[in-house]
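Retro notes
What went well: the complex prediction finally ran end to end.
Inputs used:
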Amino acid sequence: MAAAPARDARDRDREAVHNRLPLLRANAGVSRTDLADALGIHYQTVGYIERGEYAPSLHLALRIASFFDLPIEAVFSLEPFGPLGVDALTARPANDADRR
Amino acid sequence: MTRLERRIAHYNDPAYDSLRTRAGRRRVVVEGVLLAIAVTAITVLFTALLQGYLNLGLSIPASIGIWWLWVYRLRLSTRGLTDLPPEVLDERQRTARARAFERSYRVLVVGFLLLPFLAIVDGLIGLEPIVYFVAGLIGILVALATPPLVLALTEPGEELATDDGASLHGAR
C-alpha cells in the first residue's frame, strides 16, 4: 500500500494538466468558494485542480473555461504555461492602444 | 434539513479542517495504531482479570466504543467521502471514493486470506473463544475503517482554508 502514493505521483507527473486558474481567479476577483458554487463542485476541488493534484474531466474543464469566457486552451494546457513576461505586464489595455 | 444534508454539513464542518491536512490525516492514522494496541491490551487484561460474562460486558463495549470514536475521526478527516452516497459528491470526490474502495478491496482480500493461518495457530496453541469473538467484532470495525483509512493514507491532504479569496497561492 505504501507504493500507491508514489505511483500516483508518477501518474500525475506523466498526465499533468497545467492550468492558469489561480491567475484567472485573481484577475476576476473570484474566490474558490464562488467558483465552486457556480460550477456545483466542492471548494476544495478547485484547490486540488489549481495545485495540479486533480485533472478535471473534459466536461468540467469546458465549464471552467466557459465561466471565465475563455477558450479551454487559455485555461488548461498539457505544457506548463510560461511566466508572465515584461511585455504582458507593461501592455496597455487594447482600447488605450487604439486611441493612440 | 434532511438527515443526509445534516451529515454532509457535519462532514464539511470547518472546525475539523486541521484533521484534513496531510499531517492531520497521518496523525489520525497513528492514533488508530495506538488504539489498536490499547484495545488489545484491554482485551488481554480483562480476559486475565475477569470471569466470563463480566469480561464480555466490559471489554466488548469498551473496544467497540474506542474503535467507533476513531472511525468517526477518520471519516471527519476525509469529509466522509467513503460514507456518503456518490450522488452528493462532485467528480473529484467520486473518483477518490472509487479509488479508495478499489484499494480497500485488495487490502481486505489479503486480510481475509490470513484467517486460515489464525485457524492453524489456534490448532497449535488453542485460543480462547472470547478472543475469536472480540477478533470478529474488531474485524467488522476494521472493514468499516479500511476505506477512509486508505483514503487518508493515499489522497493528497487539503490546504487549510485560511485564505479562500482570489489568492495566487499554488499558481502554476
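What we learned: Helices of chain B lie at 3-11, 22-49, 52-77, 91-113, 115-125, 129-154.
What to try next: split runs per interface for comparison.
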